[in-house]
Specification:
The chain is mainly alpha-helical. It is built from five helices and two strands, in the order H-E-H-H-E-H-H.
């Protein structure tokens, strides 16, 4: 049976390694449709396995934590990323050139 789009999103997000982040649009492109960035957000908002699917590693295209991070807000997301070594700038921005995931298992 073919996986639905949420399942495909979860499969990709599970591959984002510790210490790296990916954008909503990047995840959408990796599941086959770069126009599904909002759908990625919806899928992560209802993450069925929060301890397994690392939705905290997904940020906006500008490198900011999600304002509506479903599991505790952007401060919680920032703290979770910092615990993995992903450090934000003073304005909260995460340097995607430094911490961005290349889309492949590392």
């Amino acid at each position: 049976m073919e996986k639905n789009v949420f399942e495909r999103i979860y499969d990709v997000v599970e591959h984002v390694p510790r210490g790296k982040v990916a954008t909503y649009g990047q995840i959408a492109a990796l599941v086959g449709n770069p126009r599904l960035a909002r759908v990625v957000g919806y899928a992560l908002h209802v993450n069925p396995r929060p301890g397994t699917i690392p939705c905290h590693r997904i940020v906006t295209r500008f490198g900011f934590p999600a304002s509506g991070f479903a599991f505790g807000g952007p401060d919680c997301q920032r703290q979770m990323l910092e615990a993995e070594g992903v450090l934000a700038e003073k304005d909260g921005h995460i340097d995607l050139t430094k911490y961005g995931w290349n889309g492949k298992d590392e």
